Amino acid sequence: MSNSSIVVHSASSSKVKVATAAACDTSLNLKRGMFQKDLQHIMYGYVALVEDIVVEYITDLVHKAQDVATDRGKLLTDDFQHMIRKDMPKLHRCHELLSMNEELKQARKAFQVDEEKLASTD
Prior knowledge:
Keywords: Nucleus, Transcription, Transcription regulation. This is Transcription initiation factor TFIID subunit 13. InterPro entries: TFIID_TAF13 (IPR003195). This protein is an all-alpha fold. It has two domains: 1-34; 35-121, no CATH class. The chain is built from four helices and no strands.
């Protein structure tokens, strides 16, 4: 008899847990949309702030790189690498992007050669 009372007690506690979880979900759904408009404005403001910071950083970087390149009169990727040489994550990412760009150029070149061969055989 004690086993059946334990089972009943366990079943009733699981019903209470389910009811409590449903009540929490309902209250969360009501609260979820409460600040939606405010959060959208905050997010747009945050994006605008990050954009301003990035534009300012890039502008400063280009001006400094241009100052370094004044002797040659031509701005090269090496000038930008020189400017970010102390920031290793940026420098590594720059090298990665430059090598990826070179691979893409070679792939495009190979594709153009194949098109020319196909056009000449027809």
